[in-house]
Amino acid sequence: MELGLHIADFTWAGGPPALGRTLAETARHAEAAGIARITVMDHLWQMGDATGPRENDMLEAYTTLGFLAANTERVLLHTLVTAAVYRHPGVLAKQVSTLDVLSGGRAGLGIGAAWYEDEARGLGIPFPPTAERFTRLEETLQICLQMWGDGDGAYQSEHYQLARTLNSPQNLSVPHPYLMVGGTGERKTLRLVARYADACNLFGGPGARHKLDVLRGHCDAVGRDYDTVEKTVTFPFTPNTTRGDLVGQLLDLREAGFTVAYAFGQGFPDPRRAIDLLTSALPEVAEA
After folding, report:
1. What residues does the Luciferase-like domain cover (predicted)?
2. What are φ and ψ of residue 10, in 5° steps?
3. pLDDT digits (tens, 9 = 90+) for 161-180
4. pTM of the entire structure?
């Protein structure tokens, strides 16, 4: 199993004046310790749940990924996950391509239909009803794949009209940047995974195996080999999590069919301590 570090909390010791330095040190520490991927949320406010109140520190995702690219050498970098309605698809495809070129081919796109209505409304971002958000998500996936492919023809759909899908420089990643569709929706999200994505992202728990079975059914329906979809999972841990508990949780997820785990530490004033705990599980997990 491959381990990713998901950074979902920027309220660290030293506050905003130290945030850049701490983030750079954290990324370098993670890479040196064997972490294969680093992801950030696509939020503009904190979520107001276990990760902290809305007023806590939150960095804009694509600026942060560019900063992380400059401070790392090997890790895959992407959002977990981009809110499809927050950016025009043509701009989003270009942002990911720019990150891919400047990072030496280490960029990905994790994307979903968006859910945080309070955040969007608070900052004046249009937030259409659920059905429209999923239509826009599928159109965004089509636009990104078209811009990352050969040619530069037009794209016309219900919500987006692009006269020329020119993308220069083109990505270094072949055939295109890593593409993940995140979310657990059985009827729409997992169907989009089967049709367009390199990977899914789910939450661990009793229902995870069922979600993978649903994904298998969608793959069968579109004639896709289920084994070509990377199965990734996101899970939290805290300073009270023991190494044994962490190893056990990761091995359970591996046995369920997941090959990548994105872990996010909650309640660590120094994020490097979260990395140390997480990577202490690597020997057992890597051998599984």
Report:
1. 20-250
2. -115, 15
3. 999 999 999 999 999 999 99
4. 0.95
